[in-house]
Amino acid sequence: MPTSTASARYEGLGKPGKGSISTASGVLSDQPYGFGTRFEGKPGTNPEELIAAAHAACFTMATSFALAKAGYADGTLDTTAKVTLEADGDGFKVTRSALALKAAIPGIAESDFAKIADEAKANCPISRLLNCEVTLERTLEA
Q1: Which residues of 85-111 are buried (b: 16+ CB within 10 A; e: fewer)?
Q2: Residue 54 and residue 16: Cα distance in Å, rounded?
Q3: Average pLDDT for residues 82-99, to the nearest whole number?
Q4: Could you identify which of 22, 32, 91, 136 might form a hypothetical disulfide with 44, taking C-beta atoms 3.0 to 4.6 angstroms apart as the criterion?
Q5: Of 39, 42, 40, 36, whose CA–CA distance to 18 is shortest?
Q6: DSSP label at 70?
Q7: DSSP collapsed to 3 states, 23-68
Q8: Main-chain phi, psi angles of 50, to 5 degrees
Q9: pLDDT confidence of residue 132
């Protein structure tokens, strides 16, 4: 199984410091992050945004494969993940990842869709990695 690699560099300390994130694939290359991108909406990324992207992608892929395994051959899945960071004593803690899935799957019953999506939420590797509440809102479109 593959091992994915990313790196982070931080120059300066604390709030005035500036960081950058890179991935081995090159998708992210010296992408800026720091206090401003995490708490003040400045350009760049932050760890929670990257976790949200990973969770949305992982869950959507897990749902896609589960639907294919159940015999469905066509459809569209659109997922948004909202990762919440909250104060925790003197630090911070990720407390929630809220998934919202909109799907168009021809011929699927609502109950089958719910079961497949709920199992994907519980079992996708990123859901299993997170030590926080993971919720799922499902919308099946005609």
Answers
A1: beeeeeeeebeebbbebebebeebeee
A2: 27
A3: 95
A4: 32
A5: 36
A6: T
A7: ECCCCCCCEEEEHHHHHCCCCCECHHHHHHHHHHHHHHHHHHHHHH
A8: -70, -40
A9: 85
Token look-up 């991108």 returns 37
Burial 13-49 (b: 16+ CB within 10 A, else e): eeeeeebbbbeeeeebeebebbebbbeeeeebbbbbe
126: tokens are: 């990123």
Q: Parallel, antiparallel, or unpaired: how do β-strands 91-104 and 133-140 relate? A: parallel
> What's the CA gap between 21 and 39, in Å, rounded?
17
DSSP state of 132: S
pTM higher than 0.85:
yes
Q: How far apart, in whole angstroms, are the C-alpha atoms of residue 84 and residue 78? A: 20
Q: Which amino acid is at 34?
A: G
pLDDT at 120: 97
